[in-house]
């Protein structure tokens, strides 16, 4: 918290503001891209009713503003919102099947042959390994351990870049880099973490890593 009389002076040195301004200059930045549509506006109501403005911008809708909008709903409006969510879920997710995979490429993680400085929780590793295993089954990833020397060399040259949205602490990408040899990584996450996985990834030879703190 900052006293009102100190706000103007703080703005001049605020590191978060400088970071936000730097992001706004990037070619991929588009103000209000995740603010929602007219239907969302009808749920949230006017910005003035939902909550305070952020940096004077009406295009930015924060989590706090969304919570306030939910708290202001009547019982009928709240259940109507739940009905809409369930209807969308049923229309798009009715054919989801359970598929657990344990690919050969992820053996070093399943066997705990990894950097001991990286937190290891079996339930998280199993989930991450299965995600990558399903991606491999769909043909998105290629298992480098199954390639001959020629194919492996070709794979190294065409190795894709990976952009992970909602990257969190980055452990899924850590597993991906360890097991599939990905060399170009962009992590996108609006929250700030201790970034232990980032430090481990930056130690990998010829790996290019960038993290953006943006929504």
UniProtKB/TrEMBL annotation:
| Enzyme's top EC category | transferase
Q: Name the catalysed reactions.
A: cytidine(4) in tRNA(Gly)(GCC) + S-adenosyl-L-methionine = 2'-O-methylcytidine(4) in tRNA(Gly)(GCC) + S-adenosyl-L-homocysteine + H(+); adenosine(4) in tRNA(His) + S-adenosyl-L-methionine = 2'-O-methyladenosine(4) in tRNA(His) + S-adenosyl-L-homocysteine + H(+); cytidine(4) in tRNA(Pro) + S-adenosyl-L-methionine = 2'-O-methylcytidine(4) in tRNA(Pro) + S-adenosyl-L-homocysteine + H(+)
> What GO biological process terms does the UniProt entry carry, in alphabetical order?
tRNA methylation
Chain segments annotated as coiled-coil in the UniProt record = none
Q: Which domain of life is it from?
A: Eukaryota
- Do you know which SUPFAM superfamilies this protein is assigned to? S-adenosyl-L-methionine-dependent methyltransferases
Protein name according to UniProt = tRNA:m(4)X modification enzyme TRM13
């Amino acid at each position: 918290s900052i006293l009102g009389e100190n706000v103007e002076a703080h703005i001049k040195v605020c590191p978060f503001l400088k970071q936000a301004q730097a992001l706004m200059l990037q070619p991929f930045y588009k103000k209000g891209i995740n603010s929602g549509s007219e239907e969302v506006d009808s749920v949230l109501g006017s910005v003035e009713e939902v909550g305070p403005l952020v940096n004077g911008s009406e295009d930015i809708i924060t989590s706090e503003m969304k919570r306030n909008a939910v708290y202001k709903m009547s019982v009928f409006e709240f259940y109507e919102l739940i009905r809409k969510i369930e209807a969308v879920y049923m229309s798009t997710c009715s054919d989801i099947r359970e598929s657990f995979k344990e690919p050969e490429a992820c053996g070093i993680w399943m066997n705990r042959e990894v950097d001991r400085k990286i937190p290891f929780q079996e339930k998280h590793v199993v989930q991450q390994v299965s995600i990558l295993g399903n991606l491999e089954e769909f043909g998105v990833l290629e298992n480098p351990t199954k390639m001959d020397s020629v194919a492996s060399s070709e794979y190294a040259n065409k190795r894709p870049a990976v952009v992970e949205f909602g990257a969190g602490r980055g452990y899924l990408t850590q597993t991906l880099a360890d097991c599939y040899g990905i060399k170009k990584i962009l992590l996108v996450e609006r929250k700030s973490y201790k970034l232990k996985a980032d430090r481990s990834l930056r130690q990998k030879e010829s790996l290019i890593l960038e993290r953006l703190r943006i929504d």
